[in-house]
Design a protein that fits this description.
about 220 residues, alpha/beta, Rossmann fold, 3-stranded antiparallel beta sheet, 9 helices, binds adenosine monophosphate
Amino acid sequence: MNIILLGAPGAGKGTVAELLTARYGIPQISTGDMLRSAVKAGAPLGKKAEGYMKRGELVPDALILEIMEARLQSDDCRGGFILDGFPRTTGQAESLKKILGRLDMKIDAIVNLEVPEDVIIRRLTSRRTCSNTGCQAIYNIFTKPSKKEGVCDKCGSPTVQRDDETEEAIRQRLATYAEKTAPLIEFYRNDPAFITAPSLKPEPAIDAIESLVGR
Ligand code: AMP
């Protein structure tokens, strides 16, 4: 099963993706995580992407498309995948269509996660992420704190606030979302695989996907 998760930063795409991975055994493909790993590793991609990410702007489409076409051809994507944070522009969505055509794949569910803006700002400023790039576990100081403050439960590395999760960066990311990514909702609205789900909690989105794909 191939799924696209749409929604503003902090709408819960990562949480929904985690549940879907557990249920269907298909990988979550997060372009944000891939870029952050490249930045940490000092890879050429990371060097090109870092400035855009810190400012809360989108990385140029060409960089993203190159990594995505390769990623979708990995063995672990044969049984399906969950796209989290891609596509982010109508240009990326057009290119994704072409890539899927070349790879003879189709999308089964395009899920738009809806959450009010004040909830998003609260969620993102209270988020902490494991600094170990191989782990990247996510916590929330109010709703999902690590057992020991500032230390990852899974691997023991320090948990940190991401550079792009300060209030200023978040407001910029939301402005970028409204300008560049929200138009994707109109792009996909008439697709039979498109659904919208409220995402204060992840369960309604999971239920909506299950009713759509009949499992
Ligand atoms: P995320 O964790 O998905 O919010 O991504 C963090 C940052 O990575 C974004 O603010 C962008 O700078 C960059 N990024 C992630 N995915 C994309 C994408 N599909 N296109 C362009 N930039 C992206």
